[in-house]
Structure formats: C-alpha cells, structure tokens
Amino acid sequence: MAASRPKSLFRNLNAKIAAIPMIITALVVFTGGTLWTVAYSFTKSKMLPKWKFVGFDQYERLWDTRRWMVSIENLFIYGLCMLVLSFVLGFILAALMDQKIRFENTFRTIILYPFALSFIVTGLVWQWLLNPDLGVSNVVRALGWDSFAFDPLYNAQIAIFGVVIAGLWQGTGLIMVLMLAGLRGIDQDIWKASRVDGIPAWKTYLFIVIPMMRPVFITTLVLIASGIVKVYDLIVAMTGGGPGVSTEMPAKYVYDYMFGGQNLGQGFAASTMMLLAVLIVVIPWAMLEFGGKKRG
C-alpha cells in the first residue's frame, strides 16, 4: 500500500504539470482577489484602497440606500421571470424538437442563434424593437391600429419586464439545447412502454421523463442563476438603469460606485453581497452533485 502511493503521485504527471499555471492563477487571482475585496469592504476606501477599518458601516449604508434596494427588487423580479419562463419555454421547445420534425437542424440553429450574440448587441436590438417611434409599436400602427402602444422601456412601472423579454430571447435557446440533450438521453424503451400502457404523453413527461432529467435541470438552474446575478451589459445597453433607477441591477450598482462614484468601499460591500448570492446557489448545487455521488 505504501509503495503504491508514490506511484499514484506520478500518474498522469504531464497533465498535473500542465494544470499548475491554472491552479496558481485560480489561487492567486480569483481566491486572493476575492479575499482582498471582502477585506476592503470593511474599510473606508474611496478613490484608492485605504485600510481604515470601519466595521459594517459600508453594509449598513448599502442596505439603507434606495438604489440598492431597488436593484435587489429588480434582480428578484428578473430572476424569477427568467427561471420560470426560460425553463418552461426551453422545455416546451425541446419537447417539440424531440418529435423528429423536418428541418430540425435549421430550427434549432435559428432558436439558438441569439445566444451567440453579446448582451450588448441584444440590448441594442431590443432597445430599437421596443422604441415606440421605430419598433413594434410603429409597425403595428402602420398596419392600421393607430391606438396601439407597446413601450415598456419608457414606463418605470414595467421597464424591468422589457429587459426580461430581451433576456428570454437570448437565453431560451441555450436552455432548449440543454433540455433537448436530456430528452435525447432518455431510453426509447420508456416511450414505447408508456404507449403500450396507454399513458398520455403529458403524464409520461410529468411523472417519468422530468424526474429522470434531474441532473440536467440542476445544471441548467445553476447556469441561469449565475447569469441572473451578474447581469450588467444587457441593462447598460437597453436602459442604462432607467427610467430613473427602475431597471437598476446590483452589478451596475457595483460598477458605478467603484469607477463612477469613486467609492471603493461601497462597491466592495455590494460585490461581496453578490458573491454571497452566488455561493447560496453554487454550494447547494455542489452538495447535490458531488455529495450524492460520494455517498453512492
């Protein structure tokens, strides 16, 4: 046993050596940078980092700021809509694609294409489409419906839902592809058995197929949730956080305070709260994925 341990250390030696730069980068840049940010979130840093410890003052100020509270509310609305609607739309599209329809590759490419675009491009496209003088509203009025109006980005009460539309347009294609891969992994004998037993298709999906796709759903959930927390460029391209602060997001708040407001301490505190939100998503996922396998 003791002799076999040194041999195991030298197994796949080339791969281990090749991984050293990545490991060092992860430890120094990511882990070190994260710890540095968290530490300086307890300081009174302004334009430059300054180690003047102020305890939880930055966090108290953060949660007393209306702009931050609005950004959290928007994040909740955007996140809930994206989670529910992208899951539902992605699964429905995947189920339709799984019927071996004609020109499947063409339809799959068209639906997935928006994901290849950057959020900046997506934001600019939908800013134009939702413009009442140029986009959808103008086209519909030109067809004869003179009273038609669809301008969510110009209404502070519903502006965040305009952003949701653009996010769904870009992200649903990826969810569809992930769901389709999960559906294609289902044994065809299950479908044959359900047809022989006379089980309706919707019951087969609900009680048999969906439970079998649990790993796909968990992975998809993590991808969507991590994208929700860090959404920034879509907001900047579409609304700039407006009207007013009606579409403000935590990531934009962090950027504005760190680079625009020259208040590093406040930006560090906000980014630490974002890190906490990501950990709340990632840690349960890791426990479900790797903890269960280890017990198995």
Furnish the topology, listing elements before pairings.
Blueprint: H1 4-9, H2 13-40, H3 57-63, H4 66-97, H5 104-112, H6 119-129, H7 136-142, H8 159-184, H9 188-196, H10 201-212, H11 214-229, H12 233-238, H13 250-260, H14 264-295
Helix pairs in contact: 2-14, 3-14, 4-8, 4-11, 6-8, 8-11, 11-14, 13-14
Q: Mind explaining what this structure looks like?
A:
With 296 residues, the protein is mostly helical. The protein has one domain (58-295): MetI-like fold (Orthogonal Bundle). The protein contains 14 helices and no strands. The protein has helices spanning 4-9, 13-40, 57-63, 66-97, 104-112, 119-129, 136-142, 159-184, 188-196, 201-212, 214-229, 233-238, 250-260, 264-295. Helix 3 (57-63) packs across helix 14 (264-295) and helix 8 runs antiparallel to helix 11. The radius of gyration is 24 Å and the shape is globular. The model has no long low-confidence stretch (mean pLDDT 86). InterPro entries: ABC_transporter_permease (IPR051393), MetI-like (IPR000515), MetI-like_sf (IPR035906). Belongs to the binding-protein-dependent transport system permease family. Residues 72-285 form the ABC transmembrane type-1 domain. Its main location: membrane. It comes from Tropicibacter naphthalenivorans.
